[in-house]
Sequence to fold (266 residues):
Amino acid sequence: MDLSRLAVHTITNRPWSPRECIEHYADAGVRGITFWRRDFEGVEPDWMGKTARDAGLAVNGLARGGFFTSEEWWDDNRRALDEAVAVGAPQLVLVCGGCHDKTLETARAVIAERLATLLPLALAAGVKLALEPLHPMYAAERSALNTIAQAHALCEALGSPSGLGIAVDVYHTWWDPNLEPGIERAAQLNRLFAVHVCDWITPTTDLLNDRGLMGEGCIPLRTITAACERAGFGGFYEVEIFSNRWWATPQEAYLSEITRAFSACL
Ligand code: ZN
Fold:
C-alpha cells in the first residue's frame, strides 16, 4: 500500500507527546493523523489541529467517544464533539460501551437509544460518528457492539443518515466470517468511515496492549484491504497499535518499521 494512504493514531507512539508525533509523522511521510482525546490534556485542540495541518498532515479523526452505558455518557460525548470540531476532525470514533452488570440485550438497546439522542448534535456540528465494533472479549467492559453486521443494523435502525458509519478495526473483526461482505456493503453505502490496522500475535500475552505490527501476526491484512479497495474505499488505513513491547522500544526506529510494514503487508 502506498504511503499516501497511511495515517497513524497518536496512541501508537504513546511515549511521544502529540507534538512529537506530528513532527515525526510528517518527516516519515505519514499523511494523516488520528488524535486521541488524551492528547488535549493541557493543550488546546484547535492549536493541535492547526499544528498538524501546518505540518502537512490531514486530521483524519478523533478517538474516542461513545461509552453509552456509562453514567457520564452525555457530558462526555458533548465534550468529545466539541473537541472534534476544535481539532478539525471530520469524524469521532465511538466505542459504544459494555453491558457491565446488565444483559447484552439491555446494553444494546441503551446504546441505540442514546446514540439516537447524540446523533442530531453530531450532524449539526458536522462531525461524522464512526461505530467501531469491538472483539466480543470486550463485550462486558468496553462494547456490546461486536460485529460489523450489528453496526450495519444500528445504522439502519437510525435511518441510515449519511453522518453515521462504521470504523472497521482489523484487530476486533478479522475472525468474523461475514467481515468481507460487511466491508463491501459499508463501502458501497458510503458508510465505511475508517479502517484501523495492526496484527494479532500468537500467543497473545495481553488482550489489550499486545497488538502486533502489521505482518507480525495472523490477520489476513491483504485480503481485508483488497476487499476495502474493491468496494471503493478511498480513505486512510490507520495504524493503531497498543503494545507494551513496542512502546518500550526507541520510537523513531519503530516508526520506520511501521512505514516499512505498511508498504509491505497491506
Ligand atoms: Zn480501533
About this structure: Residues 6-265 form a domain with the TIM Barrel fold (CATH 3.20.20.150). The mean pLDDT is 98. Strands lie at 6-9, 32-36, 58-66, 91-95, 128-131, 164-169, 192-197, 199-200, 211-212, 237-239.
